[in-house]
Design brief:
- This is Methyltransferase type 11 domain-containing protein.
- InterPro entries: Methyltransf_11, SAM-dependent_MTases_sf.
- Pfam families: Methyltransf_11.
- The protein has 10 helices and 8 strands.
- Strands 1, 2, 3, 4, 5, 6, 7 and 8 form an 8-stranded mixed sheet that branches.
- α5 links the parallel β2 and β3.
- It binds S-adenosylmethionine.
Length: about 270
Amino acid sequence: MTDSSTTNPTPAAGNEDKWSSQMYSKHASFVPALGGPVVQLLAPQPHERILDLGAGDGVLTLDLEKQCQSVVAIDSSADMIDAARKNGCKDAHVVDGHDLVDHEELANGQFDAVFSSAALHWMKKDPVRVIQGVNKCLKPGGRFVAECGGFMNIAEVRTGLHWALKKRGFNPEEFDPWFFPGVQTYRKMLEGQGFRVDSIELVPRLTKLNTDVAGWIDTFGFSFLKPFEGDVEERRKVIEEVQANLMFSADDGVWHIMYQRLRFKAVKV
Ligand SMILES: C[S@@+](CC[C@H](N)C(=O)[O-])C[C@H]1O[C@@H](n2cnc3c(N)ncnc32)[C@H](O)[C@@H]1O
């Protein structure tokens, strides 16, 4: 794919880039490390052309590149795409998942599969539009294989963040960036946009962090911290308070969060 931002990627239009590839590799290396089951469900083939949606810093993209003909990695974060390129991804571009549907080069039915790991739940503005875009990228019979946060994902830390904001007079709904659908909700969305669902399940996963809850919030909870951008002390207090209320999430000094993954395979009919 051609790209005007090959050396200096800019954030996708209208998006403020709050992702930090440095924080991500420091605090969140467990995310791509736990991507094995969804890569297995994808079962990439050597002749295939695959689109990785929300590819992040490209750790899983590179894994896919070894198994198929080519992979195009897209992500709305310029910082993540920059890191993906530095990590060796050959074809990585700043594209928001919501804009796929109108994308001249990608939305023309050329991909054998669209893959996505740990990213769809961030595309909350219009999840149906994202699915429409995926459909337009696929060949007939092409597959959409993904894993994302599902119903009741990270409920304890999300509840903690909601309380911390409510207590300070903010409406947490306005700052909550996630869409965690249940099986029936997402199945209907897929079927409504021209997919046959071959498998879809919620998979509970107690997840060991390689950081503490504070590090996790710093990496992933940035939207909730927006009201405190000008107040470093209050920002720190919010993070500490949420972690303090989750003391029981540490076992022998290792912090855990209860994840609930939505994993599915759908085929373009
Ligand atoms: C938790 S990371 C997952 C990255 C990678 N797939 C992995 O498994 O390591 C989520 C990624 O979704 C991307 N993302 C969030 N909203 C997006 C959007 N609207 N369009 C495309 N990517 C998005 C973020 O920039 C981030 O890189």
